[in-house]
Amino acid sequence: MKKSVFILLAFAALLNACIKPDPAPQPVIDPVDTTAVDPSDSTDVVVDPDYIAPGDTVREKPLVMWIDATANYSRFEKKTDIKATLKRAREHGINGIVVGVKPGNGRALYESEFLEPCVTLGGVTIERNYDYLEYILTTAKELGMRVEASASVMVMGDKSTRTGALYEDDYFKDIECVEWLPSGFKKISEEGQFGAINPSHPKTVEYVTRMITEMFSNPKYAALDGFCLDYCRYMDANSDFSDYSRAQFEEYIGQEVENWPSDIYYYKEGVTERSQYTPGPLYNQWIEWRAKVIQHVVSECRTALKAVRPDADLSVWAAAWYPLPHTGQNWGSPEYTYVDSYWWATNQYHTTGYADQLDYFQLGAYYNKVMGFDTDCIQYSLNVSRQILKGACDMWGTFSVASATIDVTSAVKLCLTQTEGCMVFDLVHIGSFNHWKRIKAGADAAWEELGVNSPLLSTPMPKQ
């Protein structure tokens, strides 16, 4: 019975993640934006961050564009491309960016003393003679934009090319995730989707907090407004089964695991799929412990960030289809006790929630439907997630525009009016489907409804 329920839950999550667009009448699509505009073709945007309109008490909320490091690596090769794109974004209502500075290869797109610089990414090699993050930050601040750095925290190697920190740096080789599969114990780089490291190992926490500390204590990046933890999780339900994790789990539950790892879960004879395991007697405690591990990582990141920049915000992006026991991410409030009613949960699982460690949570409602109260709608996700967070932190509604059919205007307006901010994923999709004007229309409609006419406040560049 438990196995059947687990498979149904997993299947439902998979369906949510792969929703197909409605076969509705196709909208008229603008020509594809394949090249950045010439900076000279755009009207300069002048924003006074201290301006408040007479009688106005409401400021703009963040309307943020995500800039994935890998997907936009070629697009942002030259300074002129960066400047032109950010100006176009600002002219279309976007007042902030989340810029990836540590992609999945474990290399750095910022000035780091311990991570190797990112020169080749996605098969593309770019030799920059300037600091990528510094130039984006300076340019965005000239436009009055909010800037948040993000990192793919637990992914440290490109499995397809077998390159990156996990394959080339002994520090990360030593903490690679070990998976328990039908074929036995395997390193995640051998049969997993990602080259990922073990979240429970202290060397993992050390690396993540060091990354945050060096970035936010660097005077060149003093204007950063926040840091977003992306992929701050286990990659799947099958990791980590290293000797270190076993020792940590045994300490957590106060007893030895007599039958390792079958007391956690096991595979019946003939099973070949990694997800078709049968839970053992310690499975629920294992799920709780893994969520505690991720909670600890988030907590340590908050401590590190606030120690050097108390005014900077910490956020996490995670998928909206809560709960996520297979990744160890309990992004809810530690007071949200309803989650304990799931068959895989202990009666203390709710205490693993980490929402109270965040300044805001970026809810990944990556559905093609915007309005409605079905489980595959953005509106439904926003309403349910409010209950799960229980006011422990602010929430941003985020959605993907990797489609020509999603109603971008309605999605932007919904997220801005119903949450504390909106993030649109990703720049590469905005350009591919030329969603710029739709984003602007959604922002204009939201500001009109909210009575907003004052610009966003963000951390200014320090005076030279």
Please give the structural blueprint.
Elements: H1 2-17, E1 63-67, H2 79-91, E2 96-102, E3 120-121, E4 124-125, H3 132-142, E5 146-152, E6 155-157, H4 165-168, H5 170-173, E7 178-181, E8 184-187, H6 188-191, E9 195-196, H7 202-216, E10 226-230, H8 243-253, E11 265-266, E12 278-279, H9 283-308, E13 313-319, E14 360-364, H10 378-389, E15 394-400, H11 408-418, E16 421-425, H12 427-432, H13 436-450
Structure description:
This protein is 32% helix and 15% strand. An 8-stranded parallel beta barrel has the order 1-2-5-10-13-14-15-16, surrounded by 4 helices. A two-stranded antiparallel ribbon has the order 3-4. It is of the alpha/beta class and 464 residues long. Helix 2 (79-91) runs parallel beside helix 3 (132-142) and helix 11 packs parallel to helix 13. It has 13 helices and 16 strands. It is globular and about 70 Å long. The longest helix has 26 residues, at 283-308.
